[in-house]
Amino acid sequence: MNFPLYIAKRYLFSKSSNNAINIMTLIASGGVIIAAAALFIVLSVFAGLKDYSLNFSSFVDPDLKVLPSEGKSFQWTENDIKSLLKIEGIAAYSTIIEERIIIKSENKNLIATLKGVDKNYLNVTNIDSMVTKGYWIRPGSHEVVSGWGISNNLSFGILDFRKSLSLYVPKAGKGQASSAKGYYNSVYVNNVGLFEINEELNNNYIFSDITLAKQLLSYQDNQLSAIELKLKLGTKEEEIRTQLKATFGNKIVIKNRAQLNDALFKMLNTENLAVYLIFTLVIIIALFNVIGAIIMMILDKKKSLNTLFNLGTETKTIKSIFFLQGSLMTVVSGLIGVSIGLVVVLLQLSFELVMLTPDLPYPVRINFFNVLIVLATIFTLGIIASKIASQRITQGLIKS
Q1: Among candidates 60, 68, 65, which has minimal Cα distance to 219?
Q2: Residues 131-165: pLDDT tens digits?
Q3: Domain extent for 42
Q4: What is the radius of gyration, based on Cα positions, of the chain?
Q5: pLDDT digits (tens, 9 = 90+) for 291-312
């Protein structure tokens, strides 16, 4: 057996005659355990929040969205439809027209985003399940479904025929209009439903039939803003991307659900990194206790070290003993901490101990990569701390 490792294990797992050193060693080990468990739990929470955000967006965002590479719209011909239907793995598609508009209700105005959708839209998303009052729009009608935020800001409800609700959009073109009406296209609509998804969508989106959107925006029959796709179960996203690029070339841009919500995910990733750095600082502070415990152990074992030195043990070997002791302490403590973190996360997944709302448990997810991050952080910093502490040993200290 490796001599320094054998002595290091003996020092680590055997009690010292000095009770203060035993207490300090327990405090140092406990600090690393708590820090490792806390870091793993926090990373699991952020992984759960990402999944929750992505699942929540599935009510309104498709698996893939095809957008024009230039401008706000592109031409979508019958041949393009045939080419799209030849691609294996696409379960359904929906044609979309999307543009910023002005909503007017009596004397109140609000800028929002109109999303005109066809009858296949409900095969691509589940937004109709988020309509909490009223019903979804009927194809070919002048009906709209608004977010609760828009409804509250403009003070209208559903099927409210006493209040006129109209949509405006500036006309395209150049030159001076002959009258105020000449600047805008407008259409009267009837709000038949209210949806509630999240604050951003509730305050900014209003849905209509695609025919109404084309009329308002003066789009041609084959002019679209986007095509939204639902993929068959088990289909690989990259394969569909490759086929779409091969079929339609560089005139399109393809985005998945995460890319459509890139601002949200950038925010979550930034917060995740900030929390990781904060907890890494906590681990560094905890490892100062490890350094202190090792130094105290060195001073306590001076007589034993002197004996080892007189028996021919080199100073370098004695340094290795305490370096290995500190490394073992952080490794064992890190493994225990991660194990505790795993238990806590599993309990949350199984028994929903902490609730985000009365009906929604706090989202968490066990990610093997997070286990590696925590262990790598603990081990790396633990080795550095052990190296610093072991350098305290000198030939003069051993002989004194």
Answers
A1: 68
A2: 999 999 999 999 999 999 999 999 999 988 777 79
A3: 3-57+264-399
A4: 32
A5: 999 999 888 888 888 888 888 8
User: What are the phi and psi torsion angles at 301 (to 5°)?
Assistant: -100, 20
Residues in the chain, how many? 400
Nearest 10 degrees: Cα torsion 368, 373, 379, 383: 160
Measured distance CA(140)–CA(256) in Å, rounded:
29
> What pairs with residue 209 in β-bridges?
117
What is the DSSP code (8-state) at residue 362?
P
146 and 244 belong to one structural domain: yes
End-to-end CA distance of the chain: 30
Helix (H) or strand (E) holding 208: strand 205-209
Answer for the pair 141, 209: CB distance below 8 angstroms, yes or no: yes
Which of 215, 234, 257 terminates a domain? The answer is 257
Q: What's the rounded Cα separation, in Å, for the pair 110 and 299?
A: 74
Give, for 190, the enclosing helix (H) or strand (E).
Answer: strand 184-195
